[in-house]
Specification:
This protein is an alpha/beta fold. Helix content is about 45%, strand content about 15%. The relative contact order is 0.13. The structure holds pyridoxal-5'-phosphate (PLP). Its cofactor is pyridoxal 5'-phosphate.
Amino acid sequence: MAKTLPKSGTPREAVMQQLRSLHTEDAKWKDGKTFSLVYFAGDEVSQLLKDAYSEFIAENGLSPIAFPSLRQMECEVVSMAASLLSGDDDVQGTMTSGGTESIMMAIKSAREFGRKVKGIKRPHVIVPASAHPAFDKAVHYFDVDYDHAPLMADFRVDVAAMERLIRPETVLLVGSAPAYPQGVIDDITAIAALAKKKDLLCHVDACLGGFFLPFARKLGRQLAPFDFAVEGVTSMSADLHKYGYAAKGASVVLYRNGALRRHQFFTYAGWNGGLYASPSFCGTRPGGAIAAAWAVMHHLGEEGYLTRAKSILESTKQMQDAIRAMGLKVLGEPVGGVFAFNSDTVNVYELGDAMDARGWKLDRQMNPPALHVMVTPAHAGPVLEKFLADLKDAHSKLAAGEPAPDGSAAMYGMVGTIPDRAQVDEFLNEFLDGLFSRA
Ligand SMILES: Cc1ncc(COP(=O)(O)O)c(C=O)c1O
């Protein structure tokens, strides 16, 4: 591990060799062994992303004046996203570095709306308990008050409970399409209607679904409305670097109109370094991420996205049918390739460890304990068959009383029993300290 900057440089090929060797311990996402973090659309798409990214590797999206190319690409990406999500010509947005930044911008805009339009000093937002922690991070960063609304038995947010949480300072209600944990879509029509009735904003987090659900619907999947077609929805987040298959660092945040988006911008006219105008959270905005998103959308087109959505829907059905046939339970009614499953008979964390030992990385969930799956085109065909064969083998061995291999089951079991969340937070902080320690 290097501790200081090397005195003299290393030749390019040697540096590249070192870089490649660093991959050795990484998750084998290309083989479909992981179920999150990477959305692989094939080698050809990967190469296009690399080419497009390198073409604009130096350009900076902070200045659309210096780089009109990036301005044009960003406007096109935002327009394509808006039209996929039933937005009309009034819908405006920006690209961001990812789901978290899109959500942070939506929360910041709601806060400014609350302060400037409604005169509320300390705005309050209501977020489903299943919503991504990016909302918790955003309210933390922007010092906004919030409540989590509880879920119903089907894992959708309880809209009646949401209504009870509304107070005079409330400015925003949130729904997910779908939520990460169980892959179910909240009742967006009901949330947006409630928001409209109470004169509030309504944000739909479609980070996962924004570039998947429109195609699933076109393929005939029956879906409750979740986008700008629903009256009362005022903003949406949708990640290009997930099911949009873009390079990492690309998402969009969209607003019903330009007046709402205005609350997102940051400007500062008092700096002796010049006039400063920044559309989103980051200062410098990597041109490569914008160019790669633009390139993949043009390259795949509707047909390319439909082909991939079809593959995901088919693999998911095959996977869920097999999982149910093994006696395992799929939680709720997931709408696409994101879902969770658990078991009444075996410890799912031990099942996760047994799958780890077979090379598969499934994320663990709590409340209720479950394993999480995120199907992508990389999981089709032989990968799926091998996965299901391994799952069946691991499950039947555990059910027969064979001990699970060592893994994280004990830790997850223990964490689930600690009533004091602050204690778990402390544990997670220590974990981060250790992970990023230079020693
Ligand atoms: C529903 C949802 N929203 C937001 C995010 C945050 O996205 P990112 O990790 O790109 O910041 C995720 C990430 O998985 C997500 O699933």
